[in-house]
Design brief:
The structure is a single chain. The chain has 165 residues and is α+β, with helices and mostly antiparallel strands. Helix content is 44%, strand content 12%. A hairpin with a 6-residue loop joins strand 2 and strand 3. Helix 1 packs across helix 4 and helix 2 packs antiparallel against helix 3.
């Protein structure tokens, strides 16, 4: 598993990410740098999965990570209900601006399928049907010969391009 260090030691990084995920669940949209948003997205999607699971173990695991009982309640009630039919991709990152002080690229990270979202969610793509059975090479070559259109005879022309007069 690869992750970004974000210029912090491990304890500071984990504390910052816990706070950011909790604030994302509470406000449903936060602005941060792109690198932090990519890390928060990974953790927030895992928390929504725990909320959808709803088991006692999932509540314990989420409570160990999230900050605040109100945030935990929102995760297991509102967000779990909202994303019950969605298989993944609960958050989106929208790049916004370059920060003035240090020229860091900034982005909004928000939950999809909510009110007042910055961009509408794309419709779900239909899943591909059952896979086709592969044909053996001999059947395929015979079938292509049956389906191929007959070659039309070419009209002969002289290579020089001029006709006899």
């Amino acid at each position: 598993m690869t992750h970004r260090k974000l210029g912090r030691n491990a304890a500071h990084r984990v504390a910052m990410l816990k706070t950011m995920v909790s604030q994302l669940v509470k406000h449903e949209r936060i602005e941060t740098t792109i690198a932090k948003a990519k890390e928060v997205r990974r953790l927030a999607d895992n928390m929504v999965q725990l909320g959808k699971d709803g088991s006692r173990d999932a509540v314990k695991r989420a409570a160990a990570f999230m900050r605040g009982d109100d945030v935990l309640h929102k995760l297991f009630t509102e967000l779990a209900y909202r994303y019950k039919d969605r298989a993944g991709g609960y958050t989106r990152i929208l790049r916004t601006r370059i920060r003035v002080g240090d020229a860091a690229p900034m982005a909004y990270i928000e939950f999809v399928d909510r009110e007042n979202e910055l961009r509408e969610a794309k419709p779900a793509r239909p899943q591909p049907g059952p896979p086709k059975m592969p044909m053996d090479p001999w059947t395929r070559s015979r079938a292509s010969q049956c389906w191929a259109s007959p070659k039309a005879p070419r009209a002969s022309s002289s290579p020089s391009g001029s006709e006899d007069q």
